[in-house]
């Protein structure tokens, strides 16, 4: 009798903060993720009572750490202001550069009560305003681009967030520009577009004389825009919604402050007047195409190797061939994530999530759960596929219970090399143990060989597969993709010494981690 009473929104037994949760309905909040415990349990119950879907997670290690990375961290000063604080957090998360916000409600607030008439309810915030760049800045940027000999357009995740895919594709095709997507901008323009130069990334960055940044930051992912990864005299045109980002690390030749979609439209209008198009027969394009062909041939050679254990490229080759083109890809790990970025194409925007700017391991399963909840409600049938390194999987592996509890048909693929970067095979591991305590003689990057992670999924009611050969991988993939009702995990054993192909300028080196 107690639980039904608590679930009634009109229940007088609910505390005022729980009633204040009604404010969230006005802010169109549909999902809540958290970990319950006294006195937070009642908050989750109140959320369900007003129609919010509550997802109980298992991994709490990032609650407090997230405070450092949020746009807004706030603690309400009283019960009365909770609705206003929620509205501000929602508004702050969407306005300008999007980002998460952190609200800390003191524990003693949860069971307090207050006069309803004193609660300061506010209306839902308006949609984010759309800002545009100054006309003079647009004209200057177009002039710099038109004078370029070796241009490069870099598409960042800010472009994905602003839903700029149609305008960016028009710009690419109108101007004949080679483009390079950053990891979570993959698919804004499809990876198989003829102007995509991701397979010649290092060369494109090093030799471009004009770079147009569309919602991308010159952080470590783009080598800070500095030599030797870039030309000393490279001209950067920076387009960003965040004024504080303009001029970071490199002094731009032109800055365009505004919404990426709106500013791209401005550039389209400017170039439609100029009738300028970069020649597809230029020496720059010839060099880029040559490098693309060379790199793709090297990757294909690795992918088609028949030797066992498999390497990364063989595994990703078979994954690419069998997963749906419209799936949502989640990826984390070191080599697993880096090689996956090049081997697994995206054809649609906002369908790739990875460790992102901070390279944070342990986020993959949480991302996958959130994506699967939304996909189930809005695009039924769309698959969420989470590709993890064995080390990355270990950070939040217990979220498999969450996945099975909510029966989310997520396909998890663990690329298992028995270690972090590299590991040891079973025989080498046994030999190492002969030298004494593993704490003193086993390499710190090594993990237990042949760990059966798939059994964790089986223990919670999902399907687990342990595969060692291409044929076993193909069979497991086909079975998992065809089963749209059951969570599954494929534990793919690869060569413990397998690494990415050697590059002149690797995307990510160990010194970056």
Overview of this structure, please?
The model is unreliable at 1-14, 21-26 and 504-513 (pLDDT under 50). It is globular and about 65 Å long. Helix 11 (283-303) packs across helix 12 (312-322). It has helices at 2-7, 16-20, 23-26, 41-49, 82-94, 135-146, 157-161, 165-175, 201-207, 260-274, 283-303, 312-322, 335-343, 364-378, 390-396, 399-405, 426-433, 438-441, 454-459, 470-482; strands at residues 31-34, 53-56, 72-74, 101-103, 151-155, 179-181, 210-214, 235-240, 254-257, 328-332, 352-354, 384-389, 411-416, 419-420, 422-423, 463-467, 488-493. The strands form 5 sheets. Strands 11-10-12-13-17-16 form a 6-stranded parallel sheet, with helices on both faces. The protein has a 5-stranded parallel sheet with strand order 6-5-7-8-9, with helices on both faces. The N and C termini lie far apart (53 Å). With 513 residues, the protein is an alpha/beta fold. Strand 16, helix 20 (470-482) and strand 17 (488-493) form a beta-alpha-beta unit. It has 20 helices and 17 strands.
In brief:
Belongs to the TPP enzyme family. This protein has a 6-stranded parallel beta sheet, with helices on both faces. A 5-stranded parallel beta sheet has the order 6-5-7-8-9, sandwiched between helices. It is α/β, with parallel strands linked by helices.
Task: Describe the protein's topology.
Layout (H helix, E strand, L loop, with lengths): L1 H6 L8 H5 L2 H4 L4 E4 L6 H9 L3 E4 L15 E3 L7 H13 L6 E3 L31 H12 L4 E5 L1 H5 L3 H11 L3 E3 L19 H7 L2 E5 L20 E6 L13 E4 L2 H15 L8 H21 L8 H11 L5 E5 L2 H9 L8 E3 L9 H15 L5 E6 H7 L2 H7 L5 E6 L2 E2 L1 E2 L2 H8 L4 H4 L12 H6 L3 E5 L2 H13 L5 E6 L20
Parallel strand pairs: 1-2, 3-4, 5-6, 5-7, 7-8, 8-9, 10-11, 10-12, 12-13, 13-17, 16-17
Antiparallel strand pairs: 14-15
Helix pairs in contact: 6-10, 8-10, 11-12, 12-13, 12-20
